[in-house]
Specification:
The protein is of the alpha/beta class. The chain has a single domain (3-243), classed as Metallo-dependent phosphatases (Purple Acid Phosphatase, chain A, domain 2, 4-Layer Sandwich), CATH 3.60.21.10. 25% of the residues lie in helices and 20% in strands. Strands 4-3-2-1-10-11 form a 6-stranded mixed beta sheet, with helices on one face. Strands 5-6-7-9-8 form a 5-stranded mixed beta sheet, with helices on one face. The longest helix is centred in the first third of the chain and has 18 residues, at 59-76. The chain is globular, with a radius of gyration of 18 Å.
Length: 250
């Protein structure tokens, strides 16, 4: 039985500058034995089939910047399980649309220089299923998915809702946990959500012995421990380079 720490969607290189420190601190506090990244490790904004910022970084520049940021996570957490997210798959989808067979495409661990990370669509630890959550939506996304799969589940994907909900019957008790995300709302990649009333919830997940799921919110508001102002000067400088933040950002 293990205590599992769950990293939310990071969408590199558009990650909140304090999110990695928050995850490291939280996992140390709970004494985690295993770590799962719930997916959307990278954003691949420039490869999106949806509208994307024409003034943003090129696909090549964004990929290199994402690789640098993923490298920092790899140094912090050299061994973990990754649930492949829909954004992680974007380069595969672009290649398929162009008619390119999978055999010509490098595996995720090679692309992002993470040889010890285990990249799969889903992982199971102590009877809990970990998936990115592609195709699910709404405040009960994790719970509905757990009931459908008939086992406890942890997912990401749904940025604007986080938390845990339990279900029990005469035979078992299960939970659905949405672990939130770690994105930087000021990044141009998230301009599409500026008019939304409901905003992303930053945080991470913890699962204890496959029985208890919990969401830990990131205290990143003004004056709080993980506010962006507490990032180092080097982090802030890199952030401006990565994200090309705008004065109108939230």
């Amino acid at each position: 039985m293990a205590t599992v720490g769950i990293i939310g969607d990071t969408h590199a290189p558009f990650t909140h500058p304090m999110y990695r420190r928050f995850c490291a601190d939280t996992f140390a506090r709970f004494g985690v034995d295993e770590i799962v990244h719930i997916g959307d490790v990278v954003d691949a904004h420039a490869l999106s089939f949806w509208d994307h910022d024409p003034d943003g970084r090129s696909a090549a520049d964004e990929a290199e910047l994402a690789a640098l940021e993923v490298g920092e996570w790899y140094k912090q957490f050299p061994t973990l399980k990754v649930c492949i997210g829909n954004h992680d798959e974007r380069h595969y989808r672009v290649a398929k649309k162009a008619g390119m067979p999978d055999r010509y495409i490098r595996p995720y661990a090679e692309v992002w220089r993470t040889p010890k990370w285990d990249w799969k669509m889903q992982h199971a630890v102590d009877g809990v299923l970990y998936e990115h959550g592609t195709g699910s939506s709404g405040k009960d996304a994790a719970f509905d998915r757990a009931v459908a799969q008939r086992c406890s589940m942890a997912i990401g994907h749904v940025h604007c809702y986080a938390g845990v909900k339990y279900h029990a019957n005469p035979f078992n008790r299960i939970f659905g946990l949405n672990v939130g995300c770690g994105i930087d709302l000021r990044a141009y990649a998230f301009d599409y959500g500026r008019a939304f009333v409901v905003r992303p919830i930053l945080g991470c997940g913890i699962v204890v012995d496959g029985e208890v799921g919990m969401f830990v919110p990131m205290a990143c508001g003004d004056g709080e421990r993980y506010h962006r102002s507490r990032a180092t000067k080097a982090q802030r400088k890199r952030l401006e380079k990565f994200h090309e933040m705008k004065e109108t950002a939230l």
